[in-house]
Amino acid sequence: MTDKTPRESTEQQGSTLVVTERTKVKRYPDRGVYERKQINDILDESLTCVFAFCPVDKFGFRKDKNEVPSPVCIPQSCVRFGDYLLTHGKTSSMLMKHLANGFPVTVTATLLDGIVMAKSGFHHSMNYRSVVIFGVAEEVVDEKEKLDLLNHIVNDLTYQGRADECRPITKAEIVSTTVTKIKIEEASAKVRNGPAGDDKADLSYPAWAGVLPIRMVAEIPEPAAHNTAKTPVGIKSIPRFTRKAKTSAFSRRNEVLVAIGVAATSLVLLSLIKR
């Protein structure tokens, strides 16, 4: 099934989420973001997120007997559908059991945009965009909805139409997979974007200061050994792949220039040695 509405929201994109004691950004509050659109944009760009929880049994009692609970953090794919964050996994997994039973969970997603280098080590930082979601999950039990969401996950992580190109999901696969959704309701984002914040006394210190931009890009697709199909056109529409293609061309040009420079330097050194 082709996913025709992968990220439409039932809420107004320009709406602002209600700030709670848990979502209020206290450290550098000016970096706090509560607008739904910005939060959605960060989630949509993220490929992974982390689910944090304290394991409990089916009755809600802690599994560990330690005085202080032992939290568990599990990375998952990050896929949004409207006002919900989706996740899926093996029905028998600890995380999926926890989510399916409706126990509390905290989800985080982070995009690293740059390493900020200051004149002093103390003021080094990072440019980033992050989201934190608090809530409980709802298990998707309707078989048709479950199938639609599994196809949406495939399309969202690759490109629209990929699910239609694949062998259809089987009944056994649907039964062995748990799909849950968390309402993006109690959530906030935190964003830093800017140069180093050096102290005035350090401005003349002879150390380099600036930002090293960081971004995640896709490489050129690598066909499997058993692959017999042509590279799908859709894969080239993925923004990360498009950026990488440009970056790769730029990098190859730089590599050629460096090689020429090394060769020229070697020739100069050889001529000096012969003298």
Question: What labels describe this entry?
Answer:
275 residues; alpha+beta; 28% helix; globular; disordered N terminus
Structure described in brief:
The protein has six helices and ten strands, in the order βαββββαββαααβββα.
Radius of gyration from CA coordinates = 24 Å
Proportion of strand residues:
25-35%
Parts with pLDDT < 50 across at least 5 consecutive residues: 1-5, 241-258, 265-269
- Number of discrete helical segments: 6
Percent range for helical residues?
25-40%
Shape: globular
The main sheet comes to: 10 strands, antiparallel
**What structural class is derived from the secondary structure elements?**
alpha+beta
SS elements, strand count = 10
Q: Average the pLDDT over all residues and give the rounded result.
A: 84
User: N-to-C SSE series?
Assistant: EHEEEEHEEHHHEEEH
Distance between the termini: 74 Å
Structure commentary:
Strands 1, 2, 3, 4, 5, 6, 7, 8, 9 and 10 form a 10-stranded antiparallel β-sheet that branches. The chain is α+β, with helices and mostly antiparallel strands. It is 28% helix and 26% strand. The longest helix has 36 residues, at 239-274. It contains 6 helices and 10 strands; from the N terminus they run E-H-E-E-E-E-H-E-E-H-H-H-E-E-E-H. A hairpin with a 2-residue loop joins strand 4 and strand 5. It is globular, with a radius of gyration of 24 Å.
